[in-house]
Structure formats: C-alpha cells, structure tokens
Amino acid sequence: MTVVTSYEFSTHPDARLSDAEREHAIEVLRESAVEGRLSHDTFLQRMELALVVRGRDELEALTADLPPAEEGRLTRFVVRAVGKVSALHMRIRNAWRVERLPTLVLPVADSEPMPLPLRIGRDLSSGLRLSDSSASRVHAELRRDGETWTLRDLGSMNGTFVNGRRVMGAVVVRPGDQVTFGRMSYRLAAGQA
C-alpha cells in the first residue's frame, strides 16, 4: 500500500478559489445574460463550470470573451429609473384600458334562473359566445353557488385570466374583476335586483 503525503503534490494555497470570486464570476455571467451577450444555455453551462473549476485561470476563462462591464453607478441608476417610469406607463395604460372594457353583468340571485353553468367560448351553444379566434370553442364556465360566482377554465389554449392572473382550475370572481378569455377582456358588474 502506498501512502501519499501532501509533500508529494504541488499545492498552491493562493490557487484555491474563494466563494466571493466564484460569486463575482457568476454575477458577471448573469449580467451578460441579462444584457443579451450570452444565450441562456451558454449562461447555464458557464455557471455550472464556475461552481466546479479549481483555478483562477479557469474561472477567468469563463468571462474572458465578455466585454468589460461599462456600467457605473449613474448608468445603473438611470436604467432603474427608466424601468420604473416604464412600469408606471404600463400601469397607467392598463388602468385606462380597464375603464373602457365592456361589462359582463352577473345576474342577481333573485332574478330569472340562469342556466348553470354558463359556458363561455366560440361554440354556438355557449351562453356567452365569443367571436375572437383567440378564444377556444369551449373556453370557460361561470357558475353561481348562492351569492358566490366561480369562474373555471376548461383547458383553453390561450388561457383565462382574472385581474391579470391566469386561472388554474376555478377561482371566485366578484363585480369589478377584470376577466380575460384569450384576447377578449370584460369587467364584471353586479346585476340590478
């Protein structure tokens, strides 16, 4: 049996990578991917390599072909500010659009009986027939249980959304909610007794 001691290997304590060096390399890779300089697959491959390489030269090789980050503090501030202004613009645009949506009136419980469930889609037999091609033939259904309304997606291709969130299964809806079937949106309103 051969006993190996540490004297037989050339160990360089300065060659060992710190976690901070690995994290810095991964951050450079992440920023490059966000800026579009690396594809998603290349980013994932290089990130995995950054976690297992042993030497600084190997780590530096992972980012050597990337241009140096030119962002300074001012640039990052401006990019964040533009992002926030853009988000505000989108919120204002969505708020303006919401007010102009057609209403979908929910019948009152005391009014004439509604066929349950109310089928929504392009099919001729649907209670709410949608004319847009983004809606499935049998897209969703609206059901009343006492005073509560439930909207269920029926496996539509383009989805059913309530207030911008995709419906998975069934969700309770109320007057004032925005419902979207494919590209068609409505504002729910309470019916008059």
UniProtKB/TrEMBL annotation:
One Pfam family it belongs to: DUF1707
Keyword Isomerase on entry: no
Domain (FHA): residue spans on this chain: 118-167
PROSITE patterns (alphabetical): FHA_DOMAIN
Signal peptide feature range: none
Entry keyword Phosphoprotein: yes
The organism's place on the tree of life at top rank: Bacteria
InterPro entries: Cell_Proc_Reg/RNA_Proc, DUF1707_SHOCT-like, FHA_dom, SMAD_FHA_dom_sf
Residue stretches spanning the membrane: none
Keyword entries, A-Z: Phosphoprotein
Protein's name in the database: FHA domain-containing protein
Record organism: Actinacidiphila oryziradicis
Lineage of source species: Bacteria, Bacillati, Actinomycetota, Actinomycetes, Kitasatosporales
